[in-house]
Amino acid sequence: MEIPEITLTESLRLSQTSSLHVGLNNLLQKLEANKIEDFLKGEKLEEISKIDQELYQILLNTIHYSQNKVEEISQIIFTEKHYLITGISNGDVKSILVFLSVNCYLQIEIEKLLTENDLAESNTKPLSENILKLLLNVKIETHALPNAPYHEKKIMQESKDGFADNDIKRTYELIESIERGGRGFHFNFLLENLISFFSSISFPYFVKALSVIRRPQTFVFYLQSFKTEKLNQLSYEPSLTNKWLNFELIRQIVAKNKDENFIKKECFAIKNCLLKIEAEDFEFFKQVIQFFNSSIIFNASLGELVASLSDEKIYKTVDCFEIDKYSSHQIARNNFLKSFTANCSEQKQEALLKRVYENWSSFLNSLFSMDDFYQNDLLITDFADFVLQYYTILVAGEEILRQLEIVMSKIIYIDSEWSISESQHLTKFHLYHSQLYLLSYAYRNKKLNYAQTLQTFSELKQNTIQIQRYFKHAKTNQFEMMEENFNWLSPKSQL
Prior knowledge:
mainly alpha
């Protein structure tokens, strides 16, 4: 129920000298008569629910249909602000809950309602202490109903067991399932708004509240409505070392930054959380890497962090990345590489590239002997650029030429090689071509120019019978791309 900015500005100005909104004030007095625990029940009491509906109708009619909109809104602000000031002055949580019952719909920032002096710690401390006590006594849990289906009870038990075993995937299977269905964890709107209010008026006390929480579901509830600015602020708080909290902070930030055009501040925030997780539990840290495997911003943040780790931890981090036949996460992995190389020493870059190349080479070699693996096009993988950098930076030109001759010879004489089936034979051909494809880029990057290599490639390209046999189902024009790399000195390749 958003108030247009121009209307809000004028209404705020008029509210300084306005009067109570009679209808709203009568409702809020009825609301105030209830107990605090009744306010915060997930399922509202019938009386509170009825008041809430009437309250909503007053706000809706005023904002959208009133002839004296600015004047009436100023009265509403004056009325809700009365409870806000009373709550802060007297440390009265109930008055704040009454205020939030209105402001949860209006969503007016606290800073627009109060002065800096009003929000000074000396003024907000009694209220902050009382909100903290209240929140520490509120349990946020999900339970399966006695008559719930077997699979619901199973997933809940699996989540509990996963948490006990520090297993992120098992723990979050329930959480993500709840988020996908219906309203997710938005099951207590007033409590959500109290938490948001608390973080605004007293960040240090809010940090204290987070510091005593242990269960992931509670972290989800606390953080789910925060904007990235607040999440970033929490990531810089050194006292918040709980690995589950830092994992959830990362998850919330990643969810709000799903494309390539992420903001650097969010990248730093994720890095801060990763630093704390890595320092507390490296095995948990490895799970975090696997969980956010496809996130672009996460990979960029991880790359910057890993640049500061020891060689041993660099190896362990790289080993968390699964190498398979697909390249769907190549952009994310390239962001890791870009961020890593921008922040590491030459020695660490060499360590990383060697490890990735070893893993990639081992994976590729294993495919040659797999009876049930099939490939009818280039095998790029997510790590093509890592391998290319390895060839370009760490492998001598003479070795590149030697490997090119070996792989082109295998392609030329592919029909002399025994295979268990025709599909395996086709797979081998395309695996060799995948090696040749990356080596052709290394040839170009290292500015090599060797007549024998060009002659062998020319023979390969002119073997029309082989091309027709092996490339009839291929999706990419491999020879055209490789020819540009080998003939990099020609005018066309320099365009």
